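Bug report (template v2)

What were you trying to do?
Predict the complex of my protein with pyridoxine-5'-phosphate.

What happened?
Run completed; filing so the output is reviewed.

Input:
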Amino acid sequence: MTKLLINIDHVATLRNARRETFPDPFEAARSCLAGGADGIVFHLREDRRHIKDADVRRFADELDTKLDFELSLAPEIVGICCELSPQLATLVPERREEVTTEGGLDVLTQRKRLEQVIPRLYGSGVEEVALFVDPVDDQIRASAEVGANAIELHTGDYANAADPITRAAVLSDMVRAARLAHDLGLSVHAGHGLDVHNYPDFGRAVPHVSEVSIGFAIIARSLFIGLEQAVAEMRSVIEQHAHVL
Ligand code: PXP
């Protein structure tokens, strides 16, 4: 069954908007786990706009679950990730002006830097290194070549597709990309923009997806039904719409 990891960045966004100490991302993480999440995701951005260093240290020290540390290739952030050595490190592109991560990493142009960073991450005790990539064959092949052991397929173009034809085309790219990644020995993760409405077609169509990372839709939904319940709802949609090989 595909695992559900919850990104809790937006709990910190809300806290920081009022420069308050609440809502606390750590407490949110505990509610997600109580609702059936298989792990917690956070992105320590260079500008610290949501998750802060103290949050990350507390997750690492006190949460007994899989942690997915999303990070850019910035030396400072790579250093913090190595110090904390989460089970999973997901490398993403990062631009200060963006509202959220806008697309996959360009593994081809970043190859040299990735070849330096990935062995450092493994050397510090990180078990899995995933590269967040678009469903493009060359990017997937390059991900295997630079030593990642997983990719996270960027599902944003699928979630935001303007019409059913575009959506079907992106979905078929993702099916092909997931098969290629699996054949190359990479684990397949996926995320960005997934929710209870768009997950069913994705879940049924795309093979080999071992985990999904979902944040915004679940945090938004939690305002109305609570965080535990929002996680449980997503979990149940994932269970009901699994790909059958
Ligand atoms: N995966 C990655 C690599 C991301 O950058 C994000 C957004 O922070 C997500 C998954 C989750 O996306 P969303 O918040 O749209 O569910």
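What did the reviewer find?
Residues 7, 9, 43, 70, 90, 92, 100-101, 132, 152, 191-194, 213-217 surround pyridoxine-5'-phosphate (CB under 6 Å). Strands lie at 3-7, 39-43, 66-71, 88-91, 128-133, 150-154, 187-191, 209-214.
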